[in-house]
Design a protein that fits this description.
Two copies of one chain form a homodimer. Chain A has about 450 residues and is of the alpha+beta class. Chain A has a seven-stranded antiparallel β-sheet, with helices on both faces. In chain A, a hairpin with a 4-residue loop joins strand 5 and strand 6. Chains A and B meet through strand 9, helix 7, strand 11, helix 10 and helix 14 of A and strand 9, helix 7, strand 11, helix 10 and helix 14 of B.
Chain lengths: ~450, ~450
């Protein structure tokens, strides 16, 4: 528990009005967007600098207080829920874009910068930070989670775009990792150790991100198929033929149905692929489109809506960006469990077929970043209804087991948090022990985001 | 020192004829391709399996014997020189390509597989493993070193292509890391901790590699410029315009001169760029070629030799593959010190200009993977000549200091080994301490490749 003394000391570091124990503040920092049980922090602090984060951390270390980083709480596995209470460090006051270096395709940011705001600022330089998590996440949250999304199939995830980090370690020490060269073989790769560690090893306060140029030419297709297998086989065929789509998404007929109802659309309610390609010229893209259409036709595609240019791309892709909101709106009062497995592409069809059977009696919507073999199932239900939720939970377990049997992973992009802890022994075997040893080395008191991972 | 007893025990593990203390064998494993002082191992062992590596390691751990992994000894910073003697584990008997999975763009290999042999086997499936280190390295060596090369500008380095590893830890424990999905956010990223750790944390015995499709269409250019700055400014302009060359190399006039003499060629002895582009169609590549030529002309290019198609590409690029051999042949009896800095692209011109001044009185050849900001300087001299070598060494130091001042790195691709140890405190600051703590955690007895990194 936090004492009046503690509060006074935290206020001395961050400033009177940047420390709060107000009920609504604590509530806001007790849950993410998932079904996981909320837990209240004792106090929320909004630091303004790496130095303040370091001093808060040193204080927490001395007092053995739990300390959990907070972006905006858009994660989906309970990753930032302060299950052991203590201090939540909210990065909202650290939203500075420190330096844009268009000539090097790089930007330095504070951890609290919101992904979408950053890309707005970068677009003026013809650049963007490609790992699009969909949600209004912060860069710090994306780094903690190794977030990724629809563009990862072409550009990689967050971990592929981090050049430098400033990290506060659990004792309050500040370390600077990495450099600004495009490649390096100098020493152990600490960048990747912290990216995806979900605030259990350190608090990232600043980062240098590697950017890419905004594409100039767009081609997109929305293609419907009679059966799931036609769609998933098409994904495999396109990806294994060496195409490099900028995005390649699968949506099952349930998703299309919800979108039709929620948005008053009239799409054919069938398994659907959404694809985007970028290229050097529209002529090249037109050639590519012909090839892609041919592959779709060979897999019995029934409808192909397609277009060249950014407007066409945006028209065809609008539905994808609406999906999660529409799903939630069509199931008021229910919460989502989101399956997030990823499998090798050769197992993609079998995995989706398995999933469709497993979830046939649930409010389940199958979609995902097909080009990466990443499959989501949004199951809408009531966690308070023990009987129903047990079925939801069982389905999730069986799907993860299947993905692991295919040598895949329990989480393609949402991270471990609370929800995936139980799968780590199965997925990582003996290497989980090494992860635990590293955690104990860096955070011997276990104060950083306790109750996660292990 | 190794006792007769130790030899007997090692022979019991690997087999009588796979353990040697023969003079020529020890000599062969005492040096790499660099100028660094050789050191003889006490014994060389050729294991056949992960299990044998594990048993050898457990034995070494119990007896506190140094143990150093060995591919083929092509590294350039003394990385595998057994400075504390002990056991060298040579992976030559572990050259199995375990499974090629063309449908997933993946291959499982043992660590001793030679890079070029692997790509020969993969080419039958239209695939290749892109981090081309130039030398006849093994996959295990490339992983240890995070090797990269001319294609890294497009495809990334070794670290970007490792999906799974089997690693023997210093106590003999075998861990399996990673999975076969294209993305994952599950637990700490141990893959990147071992890639580039140069055998100081574990011995990699098997790996699953991520492959890419062989390009079908090629376009290449060789362009000469009046001054270094015209060439380096062209690199910056092309890279910052968002082009994605498959390779982009700089060669200074000295390099061209050596090639002319050694290969009886008549190239214009001027700063030169070699470029390769791949594309979806030859038409697209022709358009791209026009743009590239325009940029070169704006920077006063004097000669442009160019071509479309694989034959033309191979013709234009042949000189690059001959460079290192020609340099060595033209300086018989001398050894190379190879500068290997990398800097942000915006500092590329300034860095090369600085280097040209620093090395003007040495047998120095400046070239490198310009698209990555990676600069090599091969300085040929005699390490036994203290006065001369001190000048070589000083130049290397000043160049590295300059690269670090530009927020670059002391090694873009050759690794730390012996030669770059002295620069790590400067480059990594406080994060070097965390690297040391991780080393002590995983290898508390310090038996794995001792004398490197720290």
């Amino acid at each position: 528990m936090i004492s009046q003394d503690d509060l006074g000391n935290l206020k001395a570091i961050a400033g009177e009005q940047f420390v709060s124990t107000g009920e609504s503040v604590l509530n806001l920092h007790s849950h993410d967007e998932s079904y996981h049980t909320p837990a209240l922090p004792d106090v929320v602090v909004w630091p303004h600098s790496t130095d303040e984060v370091s001093r808060i951390t040193r204080y927490a270390f001395e007092k053995k207080l739990p300390i959990t980083g907070w972006g905006v709480g858009t994660s989906l596995e309970g990753n930032p829920i302060p299950v052991n209470h203590g201090i939540v460090v909210d990065f909202q006051e650290m939203q500075k874009v420190i330096a844009i270096r268009p000539e090097d395709f790089q930007v330095d940011v504070q951890a609290g910068v919101v992904y979408k705001e950053l890309n707005k600022a970068l677009s003026r330089h013809g650049l963007f930070f490609p790992p699009d998590p969909g949600a209004a996440a912060t860069i710090g949250g994306m780094i903690g989670n190794n977030a990724s999304g629809i563009r990862t199939v072409k550009y990689g995830g967050t971990k592929d775009h981090i050049m430098r980090l400033v990290v506060v370690l659990p004792g309050g020490e500040v370390i600077r990792i990495g450099n600004r060269a495009r490649k390096s073989s100098s020493g152990y790769d600490l960048i990747h150790l912290f990216v995806g560690s979900e605030g259990t090893l350190g608090l990232v306060t600043e980062a240098t991100l590697r950017l890419v140029g905004l594409p100039a030419n767009f081609m997109a297709l929305r293609v419907a198929f009679p059966e799931v297998k036609n769609a998933t086989d098409t994904v495999f065929k396109i990806m294994s033929s060496g195409f490099s789509p900028a995005a390649m998404e699968f949506l099952d007929s349930n998703v299309i149905g919800v979108l039709n109802r929620d948005r008053n659309l009239t799409m054919e309610e069938r398994p659907t692929l959404l694809m985007e390609f970028n290229g050097f010229s529209n002529e090249g893209l037109r050639d590519e489109m012909d090839y892609i259409e041919e592959i779709c036709a060979e897999n019995s595609s029934t409808i192909i809506d397609k277009g060249i240019g950014q407007e066409e791309r945006d028209r065809l892709w609008e539905i994808r960006h609406l999906t999660f909101e529409s799903l939630k709106r069509q199931h008021p009062g229910l919460l989502p469990l989101i399956v997030d497995v990823a499998v090798p592409l050769s197992s993609y069809s079998d995995t989706v077929a398995f999933i469709k059977k497993e979830v046939s009696e649930l409010n389940a919507y199958v979609f995902g970043h097909a080009g990466d073999g990443n499959i989501h199932v949004v199951v809408m239900d009531d966690p308070a209804d023990g009987f129903r939720w047990a079925k939801v939970d069982e389905a999730n377990h069986r799907i993860v087991e299947k993905a692991l049997a295919f040598e895949g992973t329990c989480t393609g992009e949402h991270g471990v948090g609370i929800g995936k802890r139980c799968f780590l022994p199965d997925e990582h075997g003996d290497s989980l022990e090494l992860m635990k040893r590293i955690k104990n080395l860096i955070d011997p008191e276990g104060i950083f985001n306790p109750g996660k991972f292990f």
